[in-house]
Design a protein that fits this description.
84 residues, alpha+beta, 3 helices, 4 strands, 40% helix, globular
Length: 84
């Protein structure tokens, strides 16, 4: 569903995936996330958090202001729902 980009060994997101920068301050980690994850209510909450923090017109890669470990937990939840 989503992995840190460094573990994937690619610079570009494959078709059906979106690059996302996760973290607060200067501590950012890049993930590549399936577009299916964007439908999950927990992921939508993270998108709303990003909109509150940065607005709806972010330039460049989508940035989500949360801890990377929390983001990974949300991805696990979205994977369970998307594969069911």
């Amino acid at each position: 569903m989503g992995k840190p980009a460094g573990e994937r060994g690619v610079d570009r997101a494959p078709k059906g995936y979106v690059p996302v920068m996760v973290g607060t301050g200067k501590e950012l980690q890049r993930f590549v996330v399936s577009v299916k994850a964007f439908e999950h209510p927990c992921f939508v909450s993270l998108l709303e958090l990003a909109a509150q923090e940065f607005g709806y017109r972010q330039k460049g890669v989508l940035r989500i202001p949360c801890d990377a470990q929390h983001f990974e937990q949300v991805l696990k939840m979205t994977a369970k729902r998307c594969t069911a």
